[in-house]
Each structure stands twice: as structure tokens, then as C-alpha cells.
Amino acid sequence: MKLNETLKNSAVITTKKIFLYHAPILYVFHDEDNIWECEGEEYAKDSDYMVVSFEEICALDRTLLEVINLKAGFYAYRTDKNSDWQFLPLDNE
Hints:
Structural class: alpha+beta
Largest sheet: 6 strands, mixed
Strand order of the largest sheet: 4-1-3-2-5-6
Distance between the termini: 27 Å
Helix content: 10-25%
Strand content: 25-35%
Order of helices and strands: HEHEEEHEE
């Protein structure tokens, strides 16, 4: 799977722990407003978040290419970085 130009430059909200220290991404949210968010297993304070491009976050974890067709209003999760992605609607949380 390959990122298209629009998605490549889309903003993704993530944590500093994921982006700077390579903590595993375990949750990917694509909300109804077309906002993407990548989360890990640990609680993050507001000051821990940062915005990066989809291309930058995919460079850290190539398995994110498996979730690029995630529809708005859905999220993907996995139990660890070696597990397969599972998909559910956001209202199922």
C-alpha cells in the first residue's frame, strides 16, 4: 500500500513518546472530522501531544500503511506492535 499525496501531508496528532522515543503505536483513530490520531498504551497529558504528517508517522511504523483506508468514524487497535490491526467504529469504544 502506498500513501497518496493528500494523505501524506495530512496532520496526525500523536505523542512525543511515540514520535521522539519510538514507543509502539497501538491505537489509530480517524474521527468524523477527518482528524487522525496515533496513541500508545500510556496516558498522555495535553503537553505530551504533537502534530506530525502522516508520512512522518508512517516512517516510524510501516504497519500504519495497513490502516490508511480506515474510514472516518473508525479506529484500529492492536495489543502490541507485532499484533495484527483490528478495526471498530468509534461509537463502539
